[in-house]
Design goal:
Keywords: Cell membrane, Ion transport, Membrane, Sodium, Sodium transport, Transmembrane, Transmembrane helix, Transport. This protein is mainly alpha-helical. The protein is about 80% helix and about 0% strand. The chain has a single domain (about 50-370), classed as Na+/H+ antiporter like fold, CATH 1.20.1530.20.
Amino acid sequence: MHQTLLLCISLLLAVSLFVMLGQRLRIPVPIFLVLSGLVVSWIPGVPRISIDPDLIFLIFLPPLLYEAAWYTSWKEFWRWRRIIVVLAFGLVVFTAFAVAYVSQALIPGFTMALGFLLGGIISPPDAVAASSVLKEIKVPKRVINILEGESLVNDAASLVVFRFALAAIVSGSFIWKDAATGFFSVTIFGIGVGLGVAGVFYVVHRWLPATTRINILMTFMAPYVMYLAAEELHVSGVMAVVSGGLFLSYHRHQIFNHTVRIQGAGMWATVVFALNGLVFILIGLELPVIVNGLDGYSKGEVIWYAIVITLLVIVTRMVVVMFTSIFTRIVGGVIPVAERRPGWRGPIIVGWAGMRGVVSLASAQCCQLKS
């Protein structure tokens, strides 16, 4: 117990120091934290860290998603809803297909189910990583809005693909009709659960007397209640947190006064900073453990496979984003769109802003523990 507490404190201290150093060197924080964790992991005497994926999903994911939903403008989310849906659902599924077919042909012994599993792991970009990298660059506000909206929804799509592929590997069968039906059902019912739980919190905040501290404390409980309720009903906990967070965010001026909003924003910013920093440094710290767990493949083969799959994911995202831009120009004269002439700079930035993060880490860890 004492060692675990010491490790947590040491990680938080390391995150703070590395963030300050990264800002001084003007290196994007996520990249610097991953590299710093990798360097630290090779220091003699540093304990090898193996993360329980359930802890990643349960402890890290709900508050990070909730905070992102809370500060997402519903007006902007609705304005860019078409491109967000295409990127969050269409691109995730298309990427999973592409990765499945290429990995099956490239890697000996790889099946389609394993390919879809890999696709589900690496398909969702992380808005935290993208925003951290892009904040030092002047980019159009619409690009940030699209990336943030995409990140709110694509995690659910990728996790559904991941879970169905994992179930197919365990059962030895994969039925497309059942997978498609399950995909939409867990998503829709997950949204319903999130809105239902958010409605309860709305009533409590609106009609029951509470102090500022109690209101802020309940905002930290809300994402966990949404996530756990949805997972208990075997629907998407991610979509529950996202939909519930958007609902409460839209009504925050009705249920919270300015004191709660200001103090809550400061507390949430600190907590999210710590969680994000821990996730990225843990990625680097655990890399040696992952490398040591490679059985049957040489490091050269693994690096080659990783390069090919990485290039495939980058090219797939760029192609889909540019095709969407061209398609928007074509249909812009027929149906109303947010921006009829998106140009080429914005789509290129959106295409390149596809860094992976917490969901991919947790999914990969889940596979490692089950294997």
